[in-house]
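tool_call predict_complex ligand=S-adenosylmethionine
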Amino acid sequence: MNKAEQQIAETIEVFEQVAAGYDNPSLRFFPFCGDRISMHLQLKRGQKVLDIATGTGAALVAAAQMVGPQGRVQAIDLAENMLDRAEHNLRVNGLNNADFHLMDATKLDFKSAYFDAVICSFGLFFLPDMSVALKEWYRVLKPGGRLIFTSFSANAFQPQAKMFMEDIEAADVSVDDPGWQRLNNEDACRNILQQAGFDNVQLLQEQLGYHLNDEQGWRDIILNSGLRAIFNRLPIEKQDDFLRRHLEKIASLKTDKGIWLDVEVLFSSGQRPTVDTK
Ligand SMILES: C[S@@+](CC[C@H](N)C(=O)[O-])C[C@H]1O[C@@H](n2cnc3c(N)ncnc32)[C@H](O)[C@@H]1O
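tool_result ok
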């Protein structure tokens, strides 16, 4: 396995592991964001939408609701447990206008110029080669169709994320730059869209944060999100002790409202030109 394949395998392994707890209320920014995506895209009845890295369907459910029974959403992910939860979440919302596929975001098995819109919420920064993925997403969009992806801004999850990284490093676990920081500013997002040939690039930043009741809410986030991949690098016998000490520090952030969780999100969108210049 080369480094990129290893990175993908680690990502998928962790999402298989966290799928059961991913819809935990402490992580409710995912469905909040999913709703905002469909609003920003102004999806219309009858449209065909692709949701890439659908996870448990946070963006999918909102998109399926907006395109209605005449429309359809194709949802793809590489973690089967996430896809199973997405299918469940679609059904409990009384919807059935989506199909689920175990498929790699960089190798789409769909016709060219097929979708009215492509969505990828908090998935692009996991991909080793983001530019290759964007070219593939451009290919499946109809001319005039829109892509939107979300990423976390540099402030998101601070100061908790920085405290987590410091504590992990103090426990002798080496961490590379976390993947979610790769698209943490407007310039990075704009450049990657323009380089892939998208037009009408638009960037929007929104604060989707809220107060967690206490430090256990931050524990939920570590154990049920992509952060779990970093946590898993601790030897098992050290994990409980690490969490206890780390959460003691997080508890010091608590005010009478709880612990503020900053979730500043970047919404980046672009359009496949109606006349292809590529
Ligand atoms: C942070 S979750 C986001 C899920 C969902 N879009 C949301 O907003 O809640 C990232 C998802 O990307 C998926 N993923 C990572 N690499 C992928 C790849 N190469 N192809 C397809 N899905 C991938 C993971 O399995 C996981 O479900």
